[in-house]
Amino acid sequence: MKTTQSKRHWSWPLVAAGTGLMLAGTASAQSSVTLFGIVDAGITYTNNQQGHSAWQATGGNESGPRWGLLGTEDLGGGLKANFRLENGFNVMNGAAMQGGRMFGRQAWVGMSGDTLGALTLGRQYNTVQDILGAIQISNTLVQYSTHPFDNDDINNTFRTNNAVKYVSPIFAGLQANVMYGFSNSTGFAANNSWSAGLSYTHGPLNLGAAYARMNQPASSAVGAVASDNYYAPAAAVFGTRLVDATRQQIWGGGGTYTFGPATLGLLYTGSNFNMASGGALRFGNYEGSMRYALSPALIAAVGYTYTETSQGDTNGHYHQVSGGLQYLLSKRTDVYVNGLYQKASSGIGHAWIDGIAGPSSTTSQVAVVAGLRQKF
Q: What does the entry list under GO cellular component (predicted)?
């Protein structure tokens, strides 16, 4: 999701043969299937994981490893049929990610038109992820630079099943995005989801705002937010587990502005977890970032996030600083090094950079990661 992917194409014409399709060796502009993917691996050092330092071989530091197929068929009159099947995997052991799903990152089919927009059906990203994920600093740095516990889900902790999404054409720089995820149960509201947002682009300026709501998430294996694809039980603040939420709401807005080799970004997101035990666990994330192209091949980025959290009369906060360098060896291959520091308030008890295998035994944690990424 974080990068534009170079792609290799295999194309064939559709041939009426009475019983189905026949592959042909010549290219066709009418129909195509694209194989794409990313492989990303490196080494991560953490100064404190439950009281001990750690060196670990880690995958998906900058981009989650994946492979997939994109298909399109030109139906004429500016109308196209499209599909996307995208598998996520752990490059270090070859295991499937996203709960072991074959196409756990995305799996959808749809139609699009030049003047009609795009309608897609299947497992997809929600509107907050689509619009605000491109603004967050983790879109440039490694996943560890996302907000604590990925409380706003813009690092894609979970996707939405049974989803119908519509993305409008761009009118005067504006584009609308709406999505509904069905519960697929007789209790219509028991594990459904909806989201909506608006983005605006004008020259170097990009703005976006979005909202998402999940009702009784993880209450079933077949709903919009499946029980095997939500927050881990270990994700807890003030002793309250995020996975025990009966309703989650996420909202936010922000933008980026590019001038010369520099891009500045500002982002605010909020999230609210209504808990089964009563009350609500709330987060507010305030992020500022800068990306700078030191040369066509060397990119530097830095980000700072202040996160406040509360539950009833209990309050806490996190400070997090992230920075890194990316060197492009080619259009497809780059190397990177990132450093991260998180400081939690004493009321929270310990720091835990999102994506690191374990929390610190103190209120601070440092991580450094270096790696190699190749796209195809």
A: cell outer membrane; pore complex
Domains and CATH numbers, the chain: 8-375 (2.40.160.10)
pTM: 0.89
Structure tokens belonging to residue 223: 């709903």
Q: What are phi and psi of 8, to 5 degrees?
A: -110, 135
Q: What is the pLDDT of residues 26-67, one digit of tens each?
A: 344 589 999 999 999 999 999 999 999 999 999 999 999 999
Query: How big is the CA angle at 192 (ends 179 and 216), to the nearest 5 degrees?
Result: 140
Q: Which amino acid is at 113?
A: G
Backbone angles phi, psi at 273, to 5 degrees: -110, 110
pLDDT band at 323 (very low <50, low <70, confident <90, very high): very high
Task: Please give the C-alpha separations between residue 306 and each of 138, 198, 290, in angstroms, as whole numbers.
Answer: 15, 25, 16
